[in-house]
């Protein structure tokens, strides 16, 4: 009975292209939730600290080359290796604020046009489904004006525009699309309000498997 009454944390995911402000919003949200007395932790994918994550980091920094399907599977494996810890935290009542998830996996690989979207989704089928997906959307023109991309793989305007198209094709009505050209504070206020509601509404619901 006690088990049944325990409240779980919410799985809250931020998605979008590079340089749209996901990391800033994740940080702000975790801080605000903690300040309000709720348990919250941040997590980002790729998690570059694991053995698989180090391979991914070397790929992103262009130190190594990997075949497109192969790197795709490593990104998925890098999520799966975190699942036991994620489930444990969620069950213990800690909300997880996640910077990128399986949707990035699909969008970035699909943008290369070497694998179909269905193939891209397959390795992530069954991951914990997020309670909220915030999609930070910025037009390629605005993104280009905003700041210089870094030197990592994928950080080119043309590729980012294709990634944005892939995200737009994938998103459904459950996603909270946010105009990322707005101010950090105004986005944060909206994100916090939606997150507090999601934490409340999902605390007694099961976590369903993604894309099943
Ligand atoms: N990326 C991220 C992928 O290509 N597939 C994935 O599954 C994930 C999680 O990694 N350009 C790409 C998107 C980014 C890069 O992420 C590094 P970040 O959030 O910029 O550190
Ligand atoms: Mg980046």
Any key phrases for this structure?
single chain, 212 residues, alpha/beta, five-stranded parallel sheet, 5 strands, binds 3'-deoxy-3'-aminothymidine monophosphate, binds magnesium ion
Description:
The protein is an alpha/beta fold and 212 residues long. 49% of the residues lie in helices and 12% in strands. The protein is built from 10 helices and 5 strands; from the N terminus they run αβαβαααβααβααβα. The chain has helices at residues 2-5, 22-35, 51-60, 68-80, 83-91, 102-110, 117-121, 140-146, 157-170, 184-202; strands at 11-15, 40-44, 95-99, 132-137, 176-179. The protein has a 5-stranded parallel β-sheet with strand order 2-3-1-4-5, sandwiched between helices. Helix 4 packs antiparallel against helix 6 (102-110). The radius of gyration is 17 Å and the shape is globular. The mean pLDDT is 96. 3'-deoxy-3'-aminothymidine monophosphate binds next to helix 6.
* Average pLDDT metric: 96
Small ligands present:
3'-deoxy-3'-aminothymidine monophosphate, magnesium ion
Report the C-alpha radius of gyration, rounded: 17 Å
Amount of helix: 40-55%
Shape annotation: globular
Q: Which segments are poorly predicted (pLDDT under 50) over 5 or more consecutive residues? A: none
% residues in beta strands: 5-15%
**N- and C-termini, Cα separation:** 29 Å
Query: How are the strands of the largest sheet arranged?
Result: 2-3-1-4-5
Number of H/I helices: 10
Instruction: Kindly name the structural category.
Output: alpha/beta
- Count the strands? 5
- Biggest sheet features: 5 strands, parallel
Helix and strand element order:
HEHEHHHEHHEHHEH
